[in-house]
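tool_call: predict_structure(chain=1)
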Amino acid sequence: MTKGETMNSGKVPVNVLKRSVLRQLKNKRSEIANSAGLGADCAVFAPFSKGQMVTCVQEGVVELQCENDLAEAEREDLSVMPMRRIFQKCANNLATAGAEPVAAELVIFLPESVEEPELKALMSEAEGIAAELNIQIIGGQTRVSSAVRQPLATVTGYGIRKTGAVQMDVRKKLAGQDIIITKWIGLEGTADLAARNQEELLTRYPAYLVEEAAAFDRYYSILPEAATAVKSGGCTMHDISEGGVFAALWEMAEGAGVGLTIDMKKLPLRQETVEVCEFCNVNPYELRSGGSLIIASPEGTAVVEALAAEGIPAVIVGRFTDSNERLILNEDEVRYMDRPQRDEIYKETE
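tool_result:
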């Protein structure tokens, strides 16, 4: 298969698998005895006696790196994301469970219009972010299908939680615990909106503000704050993603069967998010917020101080309660929190 050729439905050819998939995978970890590969469909973990295996799955429509008609169509769809973000979401989820991410399996479905260089670029991107996160890609599948319009990826992540680590179980009773939010809400959605509307935003705002907003992806990892929270003890965590901070808070309270009270004025927002959301007419409190973590702790002040010592901004925004009421305080106004709504990012396409 030469450059410019598209692929037929079915498994990718063996020569493509070898040179554009398997050869891209270089990161190795001692926890993995053998990875899956050509003629080997299973990966083998090395024995470990102290710890628990934690797993999660993250899927996404994948952004291509090569410029073509498909890539142009992708830019019109805000559900599309870079491969690195799918891996980071998976790693973030493992970290909120108190686990160290160690391995991942990657499944990619490709449309027939995709060419081999684009597959190679996807795998190189996947390996790059996996290496940054010190995750070994241990296997998966790569398949072409005429039923697929855009590349789809599923990452199954595996982490190890050490014996004695705090059980990060959102189902446990959280009543009476402080609610802490790290960094700022709306980071992920702000970056997406700024990149998509860059030219229009520049007609109202200075270039430095628009460029800074578009670069918020650099804050996307919550692994440092999750590790600090684990060391602080007694914490339960939940990453803020689709649906924004209101959806994440609702999910935590609903999962634990408790209520909550939030001071809306304390929810941390970057000015860039305020400006971009106002321009795009979206609600920052219901906007993708990857990069921000909710931590529940009976010792909120101590956790905030521990995070500050690591250079991580964090603030106590409220408390979980033993009632069924989920209240948002905004100065003299008190209102009930609604059930999670569709993420505000999709208003851009309506």
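agent: The chain has a mean pLDDT of 86. Proceeding to next step.
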